[in-house]
Fold these 4 entries.
Entry 1:
Amino acid sequence: MLVEDALLDAGCRIIGPAATVAEALALLEAELPEAAVLDLNLSGEASTPVADALVQQGVPFLVASGYGAAGLPEGHRGVPVLAKPYDPGELTAALARLCGA
């Protein structure tokens, strides 16, 4: 909730969150976000299909994960990574950079 509050305070509109890969993919089918924050692990499942869908749709995203950059799947090594734990201000700043603000 702290992260959601920080994003709302920064003027972001939130789509989600999604706890599973299936939920995330369904959200992407319903509405494309301007940018996305993705965890590498969604309820014990690798979120690679979500990352692939974001790339295919041209949606910039960053990974917020305790695994760090070493956990990025092949093909997504250039994606910005925000290592957990992080300050919500770091997240909003990273999203602003991602969106070109």
Entry 2:
Amino acid sequence: MILKPSGKLIASDIEFAEGLISQSKGLMFRKGIAERYALVFILSAPRSVSVHMLFVFFPIDIIFLDSDKKILALKTLKPWIGLTRSPQRTKYIIEMHSGSIERHKLCPGDSIKIDRS
């Protein structure tokens, strides 16, 4: 689960992309994702990385977190043409259903809890 500090549920269907292949593939070639779905990328070390939408057929929201799981930045990317670079110090990247940022009222500086159980 992914939770706000208040305990409010942000995502309940979570997949982790920790290896090179799963991180390179991301959401490519999927038809869509559920509203409560999140793909969590765990980077080997905090850094800035590029995120592209090549072969992603639907818009997504992206949350960039530091090592303490505080939100550094939030982005919405369009299918196929979306491209962005994460802030320096990014340790976690969460890709979610488009509209999640607004629906959960997420803001830079907010903390997020990621529960792998």
Entry 3:
Amino acid sequence: MTTVSTSAAPATPMINRDRIVDWLGIAPFMIFAAMFLIIPTLYLVAGAFLTPEGDLTLKNIVDLFTPSILSAYWISIKVSVASALGGALIGFFLAWAVVLGGLPTWVRSGLLTFSGVASNFAGVPLAFAFLATLGRTGLVTVLLRDWFGFNLYSTGFNLLSFFGLTLTYMYFQIPLMVLILTPALDGMKKEWKEAAQILGATNGQYWRMVAFPILWPSLMGTTLLLFANAFGAIATAYALTGSSLNIVPILLYAQIRGDVLHNANLGYALALGMIVITGLSNLLYILLRMRAERWQK
């Protein structure tokens, strides 16, 4: 009679310690995102459908279609579109020059370093910088008047206007475009251009038929990101123009914190509209970014 001895299999631990460590590593980020992004967003969405007494209502949503609020949305959209298109156009040529234009390496490193700083330079410091430079008594304005006899403000220019705010926004829009588009231009393979040249394509035909179709998702996606970036900005606009320019972030601030227009729930509805618009822009950006990455693999 033979006996078969079987060794007991090692017991599988009920708790994976490595997995616990992994979750603990991202726990601070998840807590931070929940406290300062997810929960406040849900609070705003819920408040948009409530009265000050806590009753359900659609009046706040209906009030978004009043002429003054629609005008604020329209001005915000125009400023965002103008600064996004301007930033995308200038930023594209800057990125193209440092990546494919044959400029020295130090120019690229210097531009990217400056872009990393300038893309985050916004709010009150940026507004003060433009007022000190292009304001009615700004440095550039005074130099143009005293040295060249050119009065900038006699041409109709006004920093505290639609054009002035668009110009100010472009200060951080252009560097952001450079930072995001540079990796896409770096991903353009030399073999594609060489193959086009072997087949007899000119440089213009290569860009029109090969390069631009590949870069188009990145260009469009980044432009949408610039739009969302400008649409949600408030500190720069408020510090620069105060309440002279009726854009949505300033109107929202007046509804929630103002003494005259105080209506917190209408402010929540305004915020909900901004969330929808910027959310759609970011969603389209993510989809276009995924398509661009597939092309460049």
Entry 4:
Amino acid sequence: MMLIKTRIGPSRIQGIGLFADQDIKKGTPVWKFTPGFDLRFTEEQLRRLPPRARRYVIRYGWKSDKSHLLCFALDDGKYFNHSDNPNTLSRYYDDEEEVVTKAIRDIRKGEEITDNYRSFESTFRKPKNYK
């Protein structure tokens, strides 16, 4: 669940991006997997989805290195774009069910919020269409 004010819009990186709608200080939690709001799918649950829904969840979800389930943000958190030089970092904490994303530097209002997907999804491979 997003913990800060954001908006979505066209991204220079790829498709839709997530943008800060407020100034964010380094160290601020910006997103957190929230059980009961965000979703997790087993492979069997994913197979039972209609094809269009399954493609959507796979495109915007991630395979958790902690639970090994496919996770899906129900809010605009699904629009974080990958960057090799991100302004946030997602990581797993012992006292959290899944990832928590924090700002790793100050982020200005209007700036695209990015994350390095490799920090929480070891199987991530950067698509060729990413800038």
